[in-house]
Amino acid sequence: MLNKSGDRGSPWRQTTASSFTLGFFSPGVSTKRYLGIWFSVSNDTVYWVANRDKPLVDRSGMLVFNDAGSLVLLDGSRRPVWSSEMSGGASAVAAQLLESGNLVVRNGSSDAYLWQSFDSPSDTLLPGMKLGKYSWSRTVWTLTSWRSADDPSPGDYSRTLEGVGMPELVLWQGNAKTYRTGPWNGRWFNGVPEATTYSDMYPLHVTTTATETTYGYTAVPGARLTRVVVNHTGVAERLVWDSTNGEWTSFFKRPKGDCDDYAKCGTFGLCNDTAASFCGCVPGFSPVLPSAWHSKVYAGGCRRDADRDCGGGGTTTDRFRVIPGVKLPDTQNASVDTGVTLEECKARCYDNCSCLAYAAAYIQEGGDGTGCIIWADTILDLRLVDRGQNLYLRLSKSEFDGSKRFPVVLVVAPVAFALTVLLVVLLIWWRMRRRILGAIPQNPSIAVHSVNLATMKHVTENFSESNIIGQGGFGVVYKAQLAEGRMIAVKRLKQSALTRKGKKDFAREVEVMAGLRHGSLVRLLAYCNQRKERILVYEYMQNKSLNVYIFGTTSLRASLSWARRLEVIHGIAHGVAYLHGGSGESVIHRDLKPANILLDDEWKAKIADFGTAKLFAIDETGPDQTIVVSPGYAAPEYEQKGEMTLKCDVYSFGVILLETLSGQRNGGTQRLILHVWGLWEQNKVMELLDITLPLPKSDPELLSELKRCIEIGLLCVQEMPCDRPTMSAVVAMLTSTTSHIDRPRSPTMDITATASSRDDETDLSIPTTIDLT
Question: Residue 5 above 70 pLDDT?
Answer without folding.
Answer: no
